[in-house]
Design goal:
The structure holds two protein chains of two kinds. Chain A has a domain of 97 residues. Chain A is 69% helix and 0% strand. Chain A is built from seven helices and no strands. The N and C termini of chain A lie far apart (52 Å).
């Protein structure tokens, strides 16, 4: 069934189908890589920055204590340690968390074409909100 | 249909490979442990990830059958009965809810059940508040968050017992804001083979409530379907199917912003997150398959009882009694 047929039979708008299609592909890529990379990590094919035996002793601690004892850096520091199996796992997690931004960016040309000013503004604001959250510039806490 | 089957097959195949690898690794580690640490504790690092995988699978099945999101079950049950600290459970809970919403989103959007025009304004409010909620949640002492989580879960239990649903709420006149934003729609209802026209009212009240929903979602890592649906359906007047689907889709946006805060603060551990996501997604697939042969009312009572126990445990733990 092509997009026009889906639209006619369900009442879904063109924007919904576009958003759904991007989400569908992204979700599949994200989920498959999540499983694949995790397998590389737990089978020891890629060595971890923090061995799983140590993680087990950390996950009972409050976040602040974990960061202090493990020496883990916060924010996007994991991006500089992608040679380690555990850090590589953050790639699919971050990918899944960035998918919404990609979908919103894809919506904007259609909204502008339709001169839908309120939704164009809201969509741009949403992208800004998500980018701010993703950037880590809001600071890190940990009690 | 073929595309959908391919999608399901790929996800199931990946999950099966994953389980085989986890079990295979665990068996070899178990052998190592038993030979090197004779007489000492047999429990190794993989024990709790495996428990998480199995527990999340069951939660995924029950969540579908009881009509609730995975996150709302995951956080109180995992933090209440397993040794993980609440900070990491909330981080994992958000990723679990996010993964579930991302998986369901494409189908709901393309079938016309989840409505983008309804979701986008609510999502902006909820995702902004979720960031603030997540930051507050990570800054407050654990006992306070645990107490508030327990109280919230018990409120959710009460909401599940008393809240009514309106299949096609009556909206005599749409409000000015929803008219300006063009929030209305039509969807095909396959059960009665009819196109249903809908519109909403009380949009400003709904937007205000989404501030609170976002704050709570971020603070407790619960997802927020339990609150989204009553607001969209009972307050704003969206038909129940549109409300449920739009709520599920909304989580993919709200939880994204909160998840980033937890991720950037170091509260996301892959060893917890991945087994949980895989387990809950596999459980959801199985749940959908057996939905037709189970009694949802019985499952719903079971979920209410389990949530009630988990909520009470969290409350007592937070108060230093449990």
């Amino acid at each position: 069934m092509d997009n026009n047929q889906i639209q006619k039979s369900t009442g879904a708008t063109e924007a919904q189908i576009l958003y759904g299609n991007i989400l569908n592909i992204g979700m599949l890529i994200g989920f498959i890589s999540l499983v694949f990379i995790f397998i590389l990590y737990i089978t020891g094919i890629l060595s971890p920055l923090i061995p799983p035996e140590k993680v087990e002793t950390y996950w009972t601690l409050p976040l602040h204590d974990y960061l202090e004892k493990s020496g883990m850096e916060v924010g996007w520091a994991w991006f500089g340690n992608l040679e380690y199996g555990d850090m590589l796992n953050f790639i699919p997690i971050a990918f899944l968390s960035l998918l919404t931004i990609v979908c919103y960016i894809a919506l904007i040309p259609g909204l502008i074409r339709k001169k839908d000013a309120p939704y164009t503004v809201i969509a741009i604001l949403e992208i800004v909100v998500l980018l701010v959250a993703a950037s880590g510039i809001l600071g890190t806490s940990g009690h | 249909m073929i595309q959908l089957q391919l999608r399901y097959s790929l996800v199931i195949l990946c999950s099966v490979i994953f389980i085989i690898c986890v079990v295979g690794t665990n068996t070899s580690f178990a052998a190592d442990t038993s030979t090197t640490n004779e007489g000492s504790e047999l429990q190794t690092w993989w024990f709790y990830p495996l428990i998480l995988l199995v527990l999340s699978f069951l939660l995924g099945v029950f969540a579908v059958l009881a009509g609730v999101g995975g996150g709302v079950l995951y956080v109180p049950i995992v933090s209440g009965f397993l040794p993980f600290h609440l900070d990491f459970v909330r981080g994992a809970g958000l990723i679990v809810a996010l993964a579930g919403a991302l998986a369901a989103g494409p189908g709901l959007l393309r079938k016309g059940f989840a409505n983008l025009r309804l979701a986008i304004p609510m999502a902006l409010i909820a995702s902004s508040s979720a960031i603030v909620g997540a930051m507050i949640g990570l800054a407050l002492p654990t006992n306070i968050i645990q107490t508030m989580l327990g109280a919230t879960i018990l409120c959710i239990v009460a909401l599940m017992i008393i809240a009514k649903k309106s299949v096609y709420p009556e909206v005599p006149k749409p409000d000015r804001l929803s008219q300006t934003l063009g929030i209305f729609g039509i969807y095909h209802e396959p059960t009665i083979n009819k196109d249903i026209n809908w519109q909403i009212h009380r949009t400003p009240i709904g937007l205000a409530l989404f501030v609170i929903i976002g704050l709570m979602a971020g603070m407790f890592g619960l997802g927020a379907g339990w609150a989204n649906v009553p607001v969209l359906n009972l307050v704003m007047g969206a038909p129940i199917k549109i409300a449920v689907a739009t709520s599920k889709f909304l989580l993919s946006i709200t939880d994204t912003s909160a998840a980033w805060v937890y991720l950037n603060n170091g509260a996301v551990l892959p060893l917890m997150v991945v087994p949980s996501v895989v387990g809950i997604m596999l459980g959801s697939f199985v749940g959908v398959k057996i939905l037709g042969i189970t009694k949802p009312s019985v499952i719903r009572i079971l979920v209410i009882v389990v949530l009630g126990i988990a909520g009470t445990k969290a409350l007592l733990k937070g108060l230093g009694i449990g």
